[in-house]
Amino acid sequence: xxxxTQRTVLVVLFDGVQSLDVTGPVEVFAAAGAIDGGAxxxxxxxxxxxxxxxxxxxxxxxxxxxxxxxxxxxTLLVPGGAGTRAADRELVDWVRENGPKAERLVSVCxxxxxxxxxxxLDGRRATTHWGYCDTLARHHPAVEVEPDAIYVRDxxxxxxxxxxxxxxxxxxxxxxxxxxxxxxxxxxALVVFLRRPGNQAQFSAQLAAQTAQREPLRDVxxxxxxxxxxxxxxxxxxxxxxLSPRHFARAFQSETGTTPGRYVERVRxxxxxxxxxxxxxxxxxxxRACGYGTPEAMRRAFVKTLGVPPAEYRRRFRPVQV
Length: 322
What we know:
The chain has 322 residues and is an alpha/beta fold. It has helices at 19-36, 89-98, 111-117, 133-139, 165-178, 180-190, 205-208, 215-226, 234-241, 245-256, 260-278, 283-289, 295-306, 310-317, and strands at residues 7-12, 41-47, 53-54, 60-61, 65-66, 75-78, 104-107, 125-126, 144-145, 151-154, 157-160. The longest helix is centred in the C-terminal third of the chain and has 19 residues, at 260-278.
């Protein structure tokens, strides 16, 4: 039976807001409404004084009303942007008072910092843009920060990572509200993946690790990326860098911020992810191509890293075929 419930989505606006944090989720909810019919979402925007706000990119957004005039929403969405770094105390107070009243409280990017400043993330799991996860954890030790996740749901509060992750979270909410078919057609209309699993890493292995300073170690990093099925043992990699295994392991971790084993693990998972997303190869063939040897070894790596087995990952993340 079709869900005829109308859910109000209220987006909080402020000077320095990241425009895509606002428009990304808004476009998802609007497209879902057009596809589903029956106006499942009423989208409203509001600022403290009801006046226009200037985004971090220089665009001007005109809200519908003041925050105090806005109706109590089903979903309260708090975007991020430069304006969250030194947040207006009146805005923080408003979020503190009104955030718990919404059935769903959602943040995009550094909007999580506003929620934390309001004390709404204490004792909860949360994420934010990878560049601000350390800041969030340091300034708000009561928050359990998950730096690798694209989005995190903890009770009625959902936080997402940087910028485009807000689209992933919005698609997940549409699927929750209106079903997988509507979410799938919404993704097709916006030419995006149905949605990435929330615990998928925010960025690639190459971006997650620092680039080594010394050329032999940089060359090893590149070789690992290009040869995931190769012999990537510490001994083999050390020989390629012309260092002893012990010296290589210590130098690699010192310069990249991660161990050789952990780096190899991330590269192999990422290589397998891409093949699952973009090819028709079977799991067994992909496991060999990415250096796992057996499908079971790849399954264990996926469950450990992404929280889902390869077959489920492919089902959820493969692009919609038009």
